[in-house]
Write a sequence for this structure.
């Protein structure tokens, strides 16, 4: 009966028989179907639009004269953990920029806390202002070559589908597993297919017949296309392309040629991993939209990809147009080109501190998740034979590494040492899930670090402690400090901690407001630079040193990994 | 486990590791995403495509060299009853033309048999070769001004949603009821919204704020736009437009200007009501496609509307592209322009007599549904005052009628008579659901009938007997003959039945093969012409004389109806 009353009110308000709950007066609507701009009011009843292209009276009226109205933006794929803040803080930061729907994959917290972490995201989503939809992580752990905090099988995921915020199966990264017919993975894909849920993809550089095999599994979306040619092949094989512009992986420029009106029904935008510095300095989806239009893409194609098409691709059929009967997700912009939001409505509510204040606080989770052994310099000094050893070659701005080799200096016991004069640093991984206390050590080149250590528990995908440094004592100090503060980032030198960001939520997310996290990250970056570090984003690059599903040479708690052959390298 | 095995096979066949179940060799694929044509094989495993744009080996191979492959067509809205044959015969006729999905509204049988008629369609659909989806009729009866055989409320419809072939709520024709907040109608709309099902529209000429009110109810599709201007307004208000080309209502020419690539994601094609003569002579959706391209529409826009877009609009997300992971609904054409199908696959099965023969026979239904009183000439001779009386003015090729007036001759008792010299015929409606035996009589102009009578039980929307003639005895003979044969069509003159088509399934559908029905219809047309009838489609026009939701003057078993004011006209 309540639904019927809401329906009756919507119909009455839509035909102007009663004042609307809310009217945006005097704006200009960008119609994503015909590409036309319409002057006129936008009438809203409850959470839905009920009137457009007409004049309306409202019980509440907001003046949007001079502004252009577009549908709320949909981030089609991201890991909120990469923003280093809670979902609450994330939306405080991006919803005012026009992001009214985000499709997140809590892959990071799932690797630490398992189902409990996913549930925490689902329950948080239920109370948020934006519509956060949660994909259920498909690849936890993403590899057997590292110790993870959890393991998720189909039987763990399926009960979560009953949650109203659960969407589908998150990026199926293990494409070799799909092609090889891995039974556990196929069980997940089959179960989600049977439930009629979306199965999201992740298939960098996959082409030709192997791509066909992957698609035959019913996977329909991909955010890993990095060239127009790759994107075109995937599009023409029925795969929707999510154009990604993250903090590490930036594909917008390369994919601009496919961002056309013709392809627009099959395109979406996403941020994947975007850190607080980039969000603050450049923006979020608003940045992608601005950059795409500045790069020459048609506004109609861009705004379709940013809203209606993304929603359609993920079967969120209630949103993406500013028309009667559609969800009242509205962004009022200075102009289509500037994409500066002056007012944002999400489900008919004005996005702002008032709406945010009404949310119940998030329950605590993941405290004390960094259960690493207390380490000392000696733990990182293990004798090894003389001669050349493999060295991870870090490449500025890329998560792919090079496979190098060098003969390091050794101490009296024969343990390899750093050699800053040759930009040869030590890298260690310390298992921190309380499973086995594994410690692995190796060598890395490219950071430029000349003294001290930098360390993180944000280390994809399994989030053990990863630390790069030249001095074993400082490295141990940084690692131990992370265990003390519940995880996060630390910089140590000369026996002192120079900077740190505590991320007590699973060792992944801070409890601080977004702005403070951003300021602390700037301090961390300065501290790292004071040690000689030359990379623009040393902590992001540190975070990907332990990800063995990306070529070519990586390190996990079990040792150095040949990521091309998916093999651990013996000592 | 069975699903997992199917998935494993699909992946293996897609990457070419195993021979595919079926390969279409050497064709050219029309890619509806990029608009490009790709030479290459199409590999199929079970019911899905697993390979494209490559070379494949198959356990079975079919040569399609020289042919162009497009996705199977989706008829987005039709009443199968209007084809006058069973669902089995309907698909035998249209599936070989490329229609692999049809979204039907069993509105006609529902008005006669209620839930039992809808269930019969649902169960028939489950055994068919094409994928027939059934919308649940929203407006049974469509008006209170006529006696119907059944009444369907929300509580009757909701249990049917559990059937795998049930799609959503069929065309909500009663738009005045929506705008007035009719509680029974709102209950249906709200219930289908809550179930997450599509709500289909029907809103001829509705524009401006009333259209907004109708759309605010969450109705998303319309097949009643008859001008480009109307279609553009509806499109820009988020309503998908189903371009209709039926036997009576033909909108393709008027809507060609909106059939563009830009709008194509929001367009579909439909036939609504298409009779066996037109299907045989012109075609079905293939005719629409040919005509649209011949009329200047871009093939990409047309084929998108005919398949992928229609599927998306109705949330059938598994079909509409020829790509790995998509349903194997494939049409091999001589050319995009000719749209002549040489081979059709539906869910991976070759459409043809072999597949049709495998269907279990349809259960009998609706026999003896014509429960009309036995009538005599005297029943149609009721005294009336002298002077002018309202006359229905039939317009060739339109279901809208004119409101005319004339003073008919009268017999000795004062009963109005026909006057062929002024093209003034009598029209009667005889209630045939066994409810009340109502008989109403009136006058009609435009048939040109000079003697005898033509009669039908196919009389939208409630399917009482409607009969037009000049001789009351022949009219009674035709009506009584329809009751004897279980309904259908009859032509009588000089005390004899000249031609007839028995439609024993609810008085709506023949049990004969499609070709025989077509031949019989030609006989009926000839017989009608022999009586002087000048209309090209006299039986179609007869069928709409009793539809009081269409302007301006109509007749039901309760009397003449002012269809503009929705009022019965007193004697």
């Amino acid at each position: 009966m309540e639904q019927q009353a809401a329906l009756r009110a919507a119909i009455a308000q839509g035909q102007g028989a009663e004042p609307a709950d809310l009217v945006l007066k005097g704006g200009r609507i960008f119609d994503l179907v015909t590409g036309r701009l319409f002057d006129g009011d936008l009438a809203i009843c409850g959470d839905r639009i009920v009137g457009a292209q007409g004049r309306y009276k409202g019980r509440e009226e907001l003046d949007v004269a001079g502004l252009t109205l577009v549908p709320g933006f949909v981030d089609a794929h991201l890991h909120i953990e990469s923003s280093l803040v809670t979902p609450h803080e994330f939306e405080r930061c991006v919803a005012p920029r026009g992001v009214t729907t985000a499709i997140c994959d809590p892959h990071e917290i799932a690797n630490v806390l398992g189902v409990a972490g996913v549930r925490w995201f689902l329950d948080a989503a239920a109370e948020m202002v934006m519509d956060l939809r949660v994909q259920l992580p498909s690849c936890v752990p993403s590899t057997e070559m590292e110790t993870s905090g959890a393991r998720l099988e189909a039987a763990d995921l399926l009960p979560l589908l009953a949650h109203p915020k659960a969407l589908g199966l998150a990026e199926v990264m293990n494409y070799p597993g799909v092609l090889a017919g891995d039974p556990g993975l196929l069980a997940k894909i089959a179960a989600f297919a049977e439930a009629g849920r979306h199965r999201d993809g992740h298939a960098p550089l996959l082409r030709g017949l192997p791509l066909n095999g992957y698609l035959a599994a019913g996977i329909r979306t991909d955010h890993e296309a990095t060239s127009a040619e790759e994107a075109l092949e995937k599009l023409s094989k029925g795969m929707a392309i999510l154009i990604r512009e993250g903090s590490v992986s930036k594909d917008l420029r390369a994919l601009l040629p496919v961002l056309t009106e013709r392809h627009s029904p099959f395109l979406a935008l996403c941020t994947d991993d975007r850190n607080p510095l980039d969000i603050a300095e450049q923006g979020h989806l608003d940045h992608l939209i601005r950059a795409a239009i500045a790069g020459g893409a048609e506004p109609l194609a861009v705004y379709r990809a940013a809203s209606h098409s993304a929603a359609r691709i993920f079967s969120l059929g209630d949103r993406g147009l500013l028309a009667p009967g559609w969800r009242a997700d509205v962004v009022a912009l200075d102009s289509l080109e500037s994409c500066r939001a002056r007012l944002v409505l999400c489900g008919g509510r004005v996005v702002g501190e008032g709406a945010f204040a009404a949310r119940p606080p998030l329950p605590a989770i993941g405290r004390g998740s960094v259960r690493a052994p207390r380490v000392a310099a000696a733990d990182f000094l293990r004798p090894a034979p003389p001669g050349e050893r493999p060295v991870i070659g870090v490449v500025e701005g890329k998560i792919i590494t090079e496979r190098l080799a060098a003969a390091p200096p050794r101490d009296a016991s024969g343990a390899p040492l750093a050699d800053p004069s040759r930009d040869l640093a030590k890298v260690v991984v310390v298992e921190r899930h309380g499973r086995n206390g594994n410690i692995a050590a190796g060598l890395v080149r490219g950071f430029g670090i000349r003294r001290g250590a930098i360390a993180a528990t944000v280390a994809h995908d399994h989030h053990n402690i990863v630390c790069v440094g030249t001095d074993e004592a400082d490295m141990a100090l940084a690692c131990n400090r992370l265990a003390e503060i519940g995880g996060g980032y630390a910089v140590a030198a000369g026996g002192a901690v120079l900077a740190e960001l505590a991320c007590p939520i699973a060792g992944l997310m801070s409890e601080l407001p977004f702005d403070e996290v951003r300021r602390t990250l700037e301090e961390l970056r300065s501290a790292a630079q004071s040690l000689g570090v030359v990379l623009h984003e040393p902590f992001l690059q540190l975070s990907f040193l332990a990800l063995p599903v990306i070529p070519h040479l990586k390190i996990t708690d079990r040792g150095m990994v040949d990521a091309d052959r998916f093999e651990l390298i013996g000592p």
About this structure: Residues 100 and 130 of chain B are 5 Å apart (CA to CA). Chain B touches chain A through 71 residues (CB under 8 Å).
